[in-house]
Specification:
It is built from one helix and nine strands; from the N terminus they run ββαβββββββ. The protein has one helix at residues 25-54, and strands at residues 5-10, 14-19, 64-65, 76-77, 80-81, 84-88, 95-96, 102-103, 105-109.
């Protein structure tokens, strides 16, 4: 039985979901570029987080990132995981409940550097 993906343990990263390779050396060759990309994304994530806080785009203490250790507060909106999430009270994002209470909208962001995506 062939499996398209598998869980591999990479030194310095831990468990990762990867496409199945014939040879495990393929995973080790990808290790350094993957670490570099994750480090660069981390710098961008911290900068973006500070920027949206400082500009009042989000509610300051609601920001969650994928780097937080507490799994109870993973960046998730509507059962979808993102790299960065936060509640936002910007007027275009606000909603009102039937009782008239204000409900915030959400700021979400996913990061993937070094790849070109298309539809």
């Amino acid at each position: 039985q062939y499996k398209m993906v598998r869980v591999v343990t990479l030194p310095g990263l831990g468990e990762c979901v990867a496409l199945t390779e014939k040879n495990d050396n393929g995973y080790l060759r990808a290790l350094h570029p993957l670490k570099a990309r994750l480090l660069t994304e981390s710098v961008l994530m911290k900068s973006l987080s500070q920027w949206v806080r400082n500009n009042g785009i989000i509610s300051y203490d609601t920001l969650r990132t994928r780097e937080e250790l507490n799994s109870d507060q993973t960046p998730c909106v509507a059962n979808f995981d993102f790299d960065v999430t936060a509640a936002s009270y910007l007027n275009p994002l606000l909603q009102f409940s039937r009782s008239g209470e204000i409900r915030p909208g959400f700021f979400v962001c996913d990061m993937l550097l070094g790849c070109k995506l298309s539809l």
